Structure formats: structure tokens, C-alpha cells
């Protein structure tokens, strides 16, 4: 129950937070990524696995995301289309199944763990037929097809990228957007600085650091919200809409 990005947070919160950028902590980039890959290979391909034993919060999470996203979708000037969405760090497709497939005509998934994408093919059921691509790739290397996506959803995965890789990835996502497209980042935020997690080889950044990364990527925060009704003991989770 304690070793996932959400469940781990109570312990992680008590760890020393570091105000330096995490690149100082991530001294060996290759090891940072390969440790994370090994960690996820051992995690069961279930909702509980995706949420570190906190599978019970999945519905609250999805309902919050649906409400958030519906502010942007629909007909009319400036509204985001509902043609194609990309689920980044998709895992078994928990978000694709309950948030993206009900709202978008087609969805692509990208994740570094092949076993999770294999599971997604059955987990997504009949609606999974509307998935066009399952990309097995680290986000640090992933290149979205230019102008393909109305929404790029990035949840509980940014801590697995170094600052500079995250900046570059967000820049590539920007090029992957259709007109009026939207990037959504939903993730844990630290109270102050950067909190490293040695167990899954990730970091948790505070909001100021995240905002600076967004700015470096040439994006603006058009809307920001804190997810409500999550358990007290876990990190705060914020949702940021970027353009
Ligand atoms: C906490 S799970 C979240 C899964 C999904 N976003 C959700 O909320 O249900 C983190 C996911 O990120 C994936 N992941 C870890 N490092 C990654 C990387 N560098 N690039 C792409 N995916 C990565 C893992 O395989 C895992 O599926």
C-alpha cells in the first residue's frame, strides 16, 4: 500500500525536500530512467497497481477530471475538439477507459511499460477498438505527431522525467496539438522544492517549479485546480490546463 506515486506520498512528504532543481539530484540520468522502468515492470497491471493501493480514489479522480475537461470541450469559438486524445504514461488505460474514450472519437496511449499496454488491450473492452495507437516509449523520447491531438493528458508521470526532458517533452506536445488543443498535466505537488523518491526513481516538484517548467516550454497555464476529496495523507494533486 505504500509504494506507488500516490500511496507513497505520506512517507515521501516526510522526506527531506530539496530546493535545488532535481537535475542536481539526478546525477546519473541513465540509472534514473532504468530504475523507474524496473520498478514499473514489477507492478501488477491493475487499477490498484496504477494507484499504489489507492484504487479506491480512481472514481473521485476521474470525476474531477471529467468536470475539469468539460470546461473546454464543446461547440463554439475557442472550444477544444473531441477528435483525438493522447494518454501519456497511460499504464493499463485507467484514464483512457473512463475519461478519454467516452469523450473523444479516438485515443492513443503511450507508456514505457509494454506489459501495461498489453493489459490495456483487454482492459479497455469493446471501446478499446477506438484506440488507434499503443506506443511503447519513454516520454523523454516520444515525439507526438504534429497537430494530431485535441487533448494531451499527462497524469502521474511527470516526476519520472528530468526537468530538461520535461521541458522538451512539453514543447513537443505543443506541436502535437490541433487548433484550440489543450495539454493537461495532473500530478502530485510538493509543499516546497523537490522531493526525490528512491523507490520508483521519481521526483515530486512544488507548484512554483512546475510553473517555471511550463514557462520554459513556451506554454501558459490557462486554468488550474486542486483535486478535492482525496485522502488527507497523500500529496496535494493539481490539474493544470496548458496552451
Ligand atoms: C502512477 S502510474 C499512472 C498511470 C496512469 N497515468 C494513471 O493515472 O492511471 C505511472 C505510469 O507511468 C509510466 N512511466 C514511468 N516512467 C515513464 C516514462 N519515462 N515514460 C513513459 N511512461 C512512464 C509507468 O509505466 C506507469 O504506467
Can you walk me through this structure?
By secondary structure, this protein is α/β, with parallel strands linked by helices. It has one domain: Rossmann fold, CATH 3.40.50. The protein contains nine helices and nine strands. The chain has helices at about 10-15, 20-25, 30-40, 45-50, 60-70, 95-105, 115-125, 165-175, 205-215; strands spanning about 85-90, 105-110, 130-135, 150-155, 175-190, 195, 200-205, 220-225, 235-240. A seven-stranded mixed beta sheet has the order 3-2-1-4-5-9-8, sandwiched between helices. A two-stranded antiparallel ribbon has the order 6-7. Helix 7 (about 115-125) links the parallel strand 2 and strand 3 (about 130-135). It is globular, with a radius of gyration of 17 Å. Residues about 1-20 have low confidence and may be disordered. S-adenosylmethionine binds near residues 50, 116 and 155.
Protein topology:
Layout lengths: L8 H6 L7 H4 L3 H13 L5 H4 L7 H13 L13 E5 L5 H10 L2 E6 L2 H10 L7 E6 L12 E7 L7 H13 L1 E13 L4 E4 L4 E4 L1 H10 L4 E6 L9 E7 L1
Parallel strand pairs: 1-2, 1-4, 2-3, 4-5
Antiparallel strand pairs: 5-9, 6-7, 8-9
The structure holds S-adenosylmethionine (SAM).
The site of S-adenosylmethionine (SAM) has 21 residues, from helix 3 and helix 6.
Amino acid at each position: 500500500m505504500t509504494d506507488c506515486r500516490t500511496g507513497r506520498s505520506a512517507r515521501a512528504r516526510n522526506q527531506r525536500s530539496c530546493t535545488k532543481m532535481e537535475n542536481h539530484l539526478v546525477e546519473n540520468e541513465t540509472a534514473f530512467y532504468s530504475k523507474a522502468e524496473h520498478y514499473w515492470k514489477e507492478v501488477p497491471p491493475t487499477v490498484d497497481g496504477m494507484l499504489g493501493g489507492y484504487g479506491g480514489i480512481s472514481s473521485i479522480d476521474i470525476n474531477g477530471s471529467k468536470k475539469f475537461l468539460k470546461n473546454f470541450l464543446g461547440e463554439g469559438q475557442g472550444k477544444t475538439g473531441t477528435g483525438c486524445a493522447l494518454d501519456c504514461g497511460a499504464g493499463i488505460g485507467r484514464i483512457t477507459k473512463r475519461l478519454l474514450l467516452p469523450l473523444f472519437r479516438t485515443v492513443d496511449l503511450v507508456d514505457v511499460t509494454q506489459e501495461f499496454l498489453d493489459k490495456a488491450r483487454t482492459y479497455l473492452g469493446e471501446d478499446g477498438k477506438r484506440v488507434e495507437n499503443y506506443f511503447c516509449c519513454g516520454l523523454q523520447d516520444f515525439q507526438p505527431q504534429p497537430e494530431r491531438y485535441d487533448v494531451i493528458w499527462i497524469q502521474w508521470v511527470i516526476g519520472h522525467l528530468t526537468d530538461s526532458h520535461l521541458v522538451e517533452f512539453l514543447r513537443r506536445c505543443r506541436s502535437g496539438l490541433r487548433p484550440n488543443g489543450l495539454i493537461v498535466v495532473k500530478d502530485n505537488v510538493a509543499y516546497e522544492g523537490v522531493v526525490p523518491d528512491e523507490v520508483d526513481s521519481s521526483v515530486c516538484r512544488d507548484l512554483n517549479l512546475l510553473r517555471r517548467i511550463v514557462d520554459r516550454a513556451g506554454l501558459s497555464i490557462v486554468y488550474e485546480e486542486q483535486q478535492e476529496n482525496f485522502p488527507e495523507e497523500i500529496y496535494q494533486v493539481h490539474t493544470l490546463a496548458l496552451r
